[in-house]
From TrEMBL:
It comes from Clostridium simiarum. Its EC number is 2.7.13.3. Residues 281-509 form the Histidine kinase domain. The chain crosses the membrane at residues 6-32, 179-198. It is found in: Membrane. This is histidine kinase. Keywords: Coiled coil, Kinase, Membrane, Transferase, Transmembrane, Transmembrane helix. Pfam families: HAMP, HATPase_c, HisKA.
Amino acid sequence: MKKNLTLRLFAITSVFISIILVLIMSFQSIFFEKFYINKKMSTLKSEINSFKITYSYNYTNKQALFNSMQSFEKNNNAKIAIFSNKGEIVFLSDPNKQIDAIILDMLKESFFTISRNPQFSAILSQGSVITKILTSENQSINNIVCIAPISLESTNDNIIIAVSPFQTIKEASSVIRDFYPYGLLLGIFGIVLLSIIYSNLISRPLKAINKSALKMANMDFSVQCDEDREDEIGNLAKTLNFLSLNLSNTLKELSKSNDKLKEDIEKERRIEKMRKDFIANVSHELKTPISLIEGYAEGLKDNIAEEEQRDFYVDVIIDEAHNMGNLVSDMLDLSQLESGSFKLNIEIFNIKSLVEHIIKKLTPLLKDKNIEIITEVENTFVEGDKFRIEQVLNNFISNAIRHTTINGIIKITSELGVKKSNYSMPEYYKTKDYLFIEVFNSNSNIPNEEILNIWDKFYKIDKSRNRSGGGTGLGLAIVKNILEKHHSVHGVINKNNGVTFYFSLKIIENDLIAYK
């Protein structure tokens, strides 16, 4: 049997269901009647006690009393009566005391049988509820009798008695016994049905094993058979699992080593390319100022320049040294921002005041080109690194001045995120919690193919790198790093008559400012 899967399943199912059926039948035969009697006695006792509490010194509404007695009889399949202490019937469930003579005799017999007990008076005086099983002398019927004192006019001046015949208990037990053959047939049917199902299930693990074998043939060892048994199918599954596991582990190790090698090679290539690009860009940016400084310095040394040109030579040297200093400063700034150790100094500041401060500093440049500047920035407090956001605004506005023609327009505005549904950004930015700052300049556009590249280091739209255009090519790369560290939505959009740079900052409400 241990080696035959179908027979083993059939035997286990048969034994299991048979044991359950035997246990159910045994429990019913041995314990059910006793359990039912105890439950019945407990229920009668509880109901009598409740009835006693309800109508003690409170039976003025006799119709309600009769209704309660009738409800008691219906709910408990019992007969109830109230006797005086002398054995006289005071109340029956029928107001006219119309009752079957046999039932009346049963009530009286039960009362007088219990009342003859020597301890009856003592028990009743304590207010106890007595429950017993009595056999009727006239009819040879066992009854459950429940008796308790009740105070109608004075303390314990009457007695309640309830009688429930054993007949209903016997009938219930008999009905259950009559059901045994049907239960047995149902059990046999269940055994046969489950055996058929188990027999059909044998094909399922075989299909799984076949599927795994086909994948192994195609060099896929990731799938294993979940078969843990001692029969033929289990042994085959274990063998395939062992083979698949070993081959899978080997392939995984090889794949990891290969991926690691590819990553290392790709990393080396990126580092080498970055190194070459960095050297080429720095060399290109430094070559011109160094050449100019060298040339004009030699001219001064050799006294080539006349007296009125010497100041010009010195100014050129100073300007180029300043440009070199700006380039080195920007390189250090970008290096610091790109390092993982850099941390922002987050504070709360007024964005309108910051914009006005920057415009005031750049006023001479605006006047040189007669540029009209318009500011419509909300008087709003935002959260961020004020020094770094000043760098961002200074870069955007300086670029706007640089690329705006004479008599052009620069417009600096702000709007809530809820009004910026046209921007590509996560939904939570499109709320009143974020402020978008925009810097627009007229008379210039960025070629569409260049927009994604302007944030790269040393990238300039002017491929000739004309020095008259100004800038080191690092400004927007620095801006990008600053805004990314602020988790800010930022970008650039071409307009019909110009270009707009924008970024977002989190708004801080006035009550939060006061709290902080």
